[in-house]
Amino acid sequence: KMVPCGNAVCGTIDRTFNSSGEYKSENIGKQLVRSMVPDGKGNYAGRVWRPSNNKVYIGKMTVNGDRLKLSGCIAGGLLCSKQTWAR
Fold first, then answer.
1. For the chain, what is the domain count?
2. Is this model's pTM higher than 0.70 or not?
């Protein structure tokens, strides 16, 4: 669930799914996307929490129509793991 947080956007895990469908993860309610500040062109920069290893990474986010691309990066943003979400 993406919501404004000050002048940025933050996202909390609202629902979780696996290959069998929706399930109740222990991560529901935790903040995944942190302080993503917009640049006015559909791009955002902030932090992203990765539940599988409990680490926070440099975050990048791009919005295009009903698609959101989210990246968690290391090495100053050179190496990124990406996901695309649909509204």
1. 1
2. yes
